[in-house]
Design goal:
The protein is built from 13 helices and eight strands. By secondary structure, it is α/β, with parallel strands linked by helices. The protein has two domains: about 200 residues, Rossmann fold (3-Layer(aba) Sandwich), CATH 3.40.50.1400; about 130 residues, Rossmann fold. It is globular and about 75 Å long. The two termini are about 45 Å apart. The site of one fe (ii) ion has 3 residues, from loops.
Length: about 350
Amino acid sequence: MSRFNPAPAYTHGSQPKLGILLINLGTPDAPTAPALRRYLKEFLSDPRVVEIPKPVWWPILHGVILNTRPARSAKLYRKIWMPEGSPLLVYSRRQADKFRARLAREEAMVELAMRYGSPDIPAALARLQAANCTRVLVFPLYPQYAASTGASAFDAISKVLTRTRRLPELRMIMHYHDHPAYIAALAASVREQWAAHGEPERLLMSFHGLPRRSLDLGDPYHCECQKTGRLLAEALELPPARYAVSFQSRFGRAEWLQPYTVPTLEAWAREGVRRVDVVCPGFAADCLETLEEIAIGGREAFLAAGGERFRYLPALNDRDDWIDAMLAIAREHLGGWLAPPLGAAALQASRERALGMGAER
Ligand SMILES: C=CC1=C(C)c2cc3[nH]c(cc4nc(cc5[nH]c(cc1n2)c(C)c5CCC(=O)O)C(CCC(=O)O)=C4C)c(C)c3C=C
Ligand SMILES: [Fe+2]
Ligand SMILES: [Fe+2]
């Protein structure tokens, strides 16, 4: 038996198509300890996420973490779970649906996959292949590149392709932390909140953290977060004294990127800052890390330290200007790919005309 998947039946006949694969991190299937255990096991076994040698990490993961963290994390997920499911998946689906609808005329097929959990990457790639997507653009929903996110998505795709006979043409977006349309959507989302509720004294821009070591080893993530922060501040005409960039979601005991978000909020409250807003520009969709850690935990910490008004500003989620930005970002990577034969509808119609079949559509 061959170790390669057979070339699918589409090889003869159907139109070649463009596929766009949106990828986000992934989330548990349910806010329960067993579901969290499955999710965390997959997530924390990824060598791109935890870069500790397996003989050292495995006993810690299987002996301690997977026996304690699932129940604790499940409790946190229960605080933010939506009737339709995990916020990360709910918002990512809405994004994908709107993005797909906007691309309908381009005849592109859009699939959503999660790096961990479901819907998974192998199944999404199989659906694209079965639909004869001979060209695939991979679009991770991480504006700032980190090895633990972007490169990990790439690893998961390559793993599937090592078993595939007929490879698609492949392109992958790695970062868009400074894309004008992304920055403009972020700025508009903040300005809308300010128009409705008033401006805070300070704005904290909180990004997911990484181990500090990743910066020393050359991961561009820290610098990309700083640049997003500066561009957003410029777009909002905020002077440096009125904003800061910070890092949240520390995991484990090692030093992570600093300054940390919650201690920054506490320090500001102690300094006498009464009103803060927090925005999380690195999260394209709201999730545990924004809704629980910041909107709930950040608020409690700031108020307990003497602050008076705390606002968490929602992620871009399925805002129309963000969907427009996604389209602009995707299109920049589609150079030459939107021309025929990928203008498939036009081509099919002309074929049908030529064959005297009449186009009913
Ligand atoms: C936005 C980019 C992200 C980076 C970079 C990132 C790195 C990273 N994360 C962990 C550990 C955990 N992260 C967890 C949740 C989580 N992380 C991101 C995004 C990034 N992570 C998101 C969007 C989420 C939320 C998922 C959801 O279901 O809503 C978790 C799980 C939750 C928990 O048990 O606390 C862990 C664990 C590491 C170690 C890391 C880089 C080294
Ligand atoms: Fe994370
Ligand atoms: Fe967290």
